[in-house]
Amino acid sequence: MPAATLPTLTPKDFASDQDVRWCPGCGDYSILAQMKKVCASLGIPREKFVFISGIGCSSRFPYYMNTYGFHTIHGRAPTFATGLKVARPDLLVWVITGDGDGLSIGGNHLLHALRRNVDIKIVLFNNEIYGLTKGQYSPTSRLGTRTKSSPLGSIENPIRPITIALAAEATFVARTIDVDVNHLTETLRRAAFHKGSAFVEVYQNCKVFNDGVFEYTTDKEVKSENVLYLEQGKPLIFGKNRDKGIRLNGLEPEVVELGKGVSVDDLIIHDEKAAEPTLAFVLSRMYHPQFPEPVGVFRAIERPTFEDLLNRQVEDAIKAKGRGKLEELFQSEDIWVVEEAEANGPAALD
Questions:
Q1: Which of 254, 188, 245, 180 is nearest to 217 (CA)?
Q2: What is the structure's pLDDT at 35?
Q3: Cα–Cα distance between 206 and 126 in angstroms, integer?
Q4: How far apart (Å, rounded) are the C-alpha atoms in residues 279 and 275?
């Protein structure tokens, strides 16, 4: 349908008739609201959107979007999304997952969807806890986190979602925060327009089981000292007075103060389009309290997508050999005939 004939859509057009069943104060409400705004602004018919989820609080998302959707099984949403995108490359396919769903049982599926560069948009709600199953520690829970399943404190080293996505060679990798409405909206919009695997980690507050875990990134009194906004082609500067920055000391990042023998020219210049993700990987390892935590787009590069390459192979095979018939496929290669055994005695089977 030509863009000129498309009806004007509003966020309300993407609201389903289902009651939203998240806890009062949950960060998921903000993500849902901004997603509706983004979808309405893309100029795409509603029937071209599909939301696919696994299991968890975040995975209720497809019920609340007035689009096509699948509520699938634990951790397997990227697999369903891959199959759909290959069959229907014209659709805009979103995967909604959480730190438990996407990085525990679903870690393998997430990893391979990203490395294949399937043109799907994966939004991972990270609240560092299992919310739906009532507060067990998750793969992203910090060392020492006390939960129902770790009453003495978690002893497991947490997974860093951005680091994992970069290691898997995802072509678009970003982080944003649930209550940073403008930044969240723009990040989701950029992910929507990206051609290839897009991975967005959202710091999301679980009001009931892990309240305030990201407060250092949202509290207006301290946020400017703890959050580093990534901007393409600009130096890494942060702080209430914009007087601090990040430079490299060998291969290690360090926080420096400007004006004390250090100038802007000494700082790292952010380049999300770099073919080699080394600096993006360095940024992904910067965590509070030693560093301000980067939010924004870590990487955004172009590479052929999985479904384009696969469908091209199919087209080339059809051109070379013809479309073929299913019966001929069944009877090709190694086949054999099972003769009917004689009725008298086992010797007939020798």
A1: 180
A2: 98
A3: 9
A4: 10
pLDDT tens figures, 206-220: 999 999 999 999 999
Q: Which residues of the chain have pLDDT under 70?
A: 1-6, 342-350
- The residue extents of the domains of the chain are 3-234+270-307, 236-269
pLDDT of residue 342: 65
Q: Is residue 126 helix, strand or coil?
A: strand
What is the per-residue pLDDT for 1? 42
Which residues are bridge partners to 269 per DSSP? 235
> What are the structure tokens assigned to 105, written together?
């049982």
DSSP letters spanning 54-100: -SSSGGGHHHHBSSEEEE--TT-HHHHHHHHHHH-TTSEEEEEEEHH
- 10 Å CB burial of residue 86 (0-12, 13-18, 19+) is middle
What is the CATH number that goes with domain 3-234+270-307?
Answer: 3.40.50.970
Handedness of CA 151, 156, 157, 163 (dihedral sign): negative
CA distance 245 to 266: 9
Question: In this structure, what token pair is assigned to residue 163?
Answer: 């680091």
Burial zone of 346 (CB within 10 Å; 0-12 exposed, 13-18 middle, 19+ buried): exposed
Relative to beta strand 244-249, strand 252-257 is antiparallel
Torsion, Cα 167 171 175 180, to 10 degrees, reads: 180
Using DSSP, state whether 203 is helix, strand or coil: strand
Q: What is the pLDDT of residues 8-42, one digit of tens each?
A: 999 999 999 999 999 999 999 999 999 999 999 99
Residue pair 272/306 in contact by the 8 Å Cβ criterion: no
